[in-house]
Design goal:
Distance between the termini: 24 Å
Number of strands: 15
Helix content: 25-40%
Radius of gyration: 21 Å
Shape: globular
Order of helices and strands: EEHHHHHHHHEEEEEEEEHEEEHEE
Oligomer: single chain
Bound molecules: zinc ion
Number of helices: 10
Largest sheet: 8 strands, antiparallel
Structural class: alpha+beta
Length: about 375
């Protein structure tokens, strides 16, 4: 029975107190308010107690994620201390670490003899992302070690963990944008540059639900220029069936506005419309708008209760980069929307990810849930 109400947002709850979204928001506000002295103190404390990061529940790990997510404030001292102590569980700690740290990680990786250790180290190197990282991963792709057989993927797939990959010749390709901006609750304006779940005229041939332009981003807005599209990105889907489309739901978008969904892998058999009219109405009436300011690239990579454009994703399962159906290259990760944030009553599970090929004007939507 939902007999309680969240005192902050009014959402109906089965328990007393803040709903999980408002609780996450409160924690976020507190961490965002840290002063320069508090940040310096947290950095010093983590550097001195670096092995505490091996425990994902420790205060230090929590503080590290607040530094990464809200302040973009990890120091080379923290990275060097982690390397020296062999702390490799939180790969994001090594993002853009200096070259000496990259070279150090590569050395440890080359001597690794277990697949677990090698997997962790490849993620750390992927996050470091420098020339040392590329040459080490390329070397292991060309000359696999014994542990490779026990891993699911090649080093070029591990590189994707850090938001890039490479081809056989060792040419790099970036898969994430290092700028990030959240979507926040507000009142969408006439020319709102970021809109979610705009209803379309067409209906899904599989379940009969109305189709939606799930994500519409105007790349001409100053805040979204980093996406590299001089026009409007439109990604359409059936909001009910997108969860069944394991290979992604693709749209060919017209930079002047609008887009056509490409044929999908679903068979024409009837799918049940679980969303229904009420669920759809809640979705299309969401009040999300683009935030005023950019945030650090890991803002949406760990804490739940945020939807973001750019930066790093919080993958529910493993990271997944779709192949562009036009040019065959891996698409770039562009946005994530938590379904639960779009609903007040209905509730939603999992996250919808947007990926784009700016060259071919293709958008792909991908759903993941536990
Ligand atoms: Zn609430
Ligand atoms: Zn459908
Ligand atoms: Zn393409």
């Amino acid at each position: 029975m939902l007999e309680h109400k969240c005192p902050s947002c009014g959402r109906q709850l089965g328990y007393e107190g803040l709903c999980w979204l408002c609780r996450a928001e409160k924690d976020r506000r507190e961490a965002q308010a840290w002063t320069a002295e508090q940040i310096a103190e947290k950095q010093r404390n983590i550097t001195q107690n670096i092995t505490a990061l091996d425990d994902w529940k420790s205060e230090e790990t929590k503080d590290l994620w607040s530094l990464l997510s809200y302040h973009g404030a990890v120091t080379p001292e923290m990275q060097r201390a982690a390397l020296a102590a062999g702390v490799f569980d939180v790969e994001q700690l090594y993002w853009r670490a200096p070259a000496d740290v990259g070279a150090g990680l590569a050395r440890v990786l080359m001597e690794a003899d277990s697949h677990d250790e090698a997997g962790c180290l490849m993620c750390c190197l992927a996050m470091q992302g420098g020339d040392e990282a590329l040459s080490a991963l390329l070397e292991l792709e060309r000359n696999p070690r014994a542990w490779r057989k026990k891993l699911y993927a090649d080093p070029s797939i591990y590189a994707e963990c850090g938001g890039w990959t490479f081809d056989k010749e060792g040419r790099r390709r970036e898969l994430v944008f290092d700028r990030c901006i959240p979507l926040v609750k507000g009142t969408p304006g006439e020319n709102e540059p970021a809109r979610l779940m705009r209803p379309r005229e067409d209906f899904c041939p599989h379940c009969g639900c109305r189709m939606v332009d799930a994500v519409i981003l105007d790349g001409r807005d100053e805040r979204l220029r980093f996406l590299g599209v001089d026009g409007v990105i439109t990604a359409a889907c059936c909001p009910n069936c997108v969860g069944f489309e394991d290979g992604g739901a693709f749209t060919r978008f017209n930079p002047r506005g609008g887009g056509e969904p490409l044929p999908n892998d679903l068979t024409l058999d009837d799918y049940e419309n679980y969303l229904g009219d009420e669920g759809l109405a809640e979705l299309v009436n969401n009040r999300f708008v683009l935030a005023e300011r950019h945030v650090p690239p890991f803002y949406g990579a760990y804490y739940e209760g945020v939807s973001t454009i750019g930066g790093f994703a919080n993958w529910v399962q493993d990271w997944q980069y779709l192949e562009c159906p036009e040019c065959g290259k891996k698409m770039k990760y562009a946005a994530q929307i938590e379904w639960d944030m779009l609903f007040d009553e209905y509730g939603g599970e999992g996250t919808l990810y947007l990926e784009i090929c700016p060259d071919c004007h293709i958008a792909g939507l991908l759903h993941q849930q536990t």
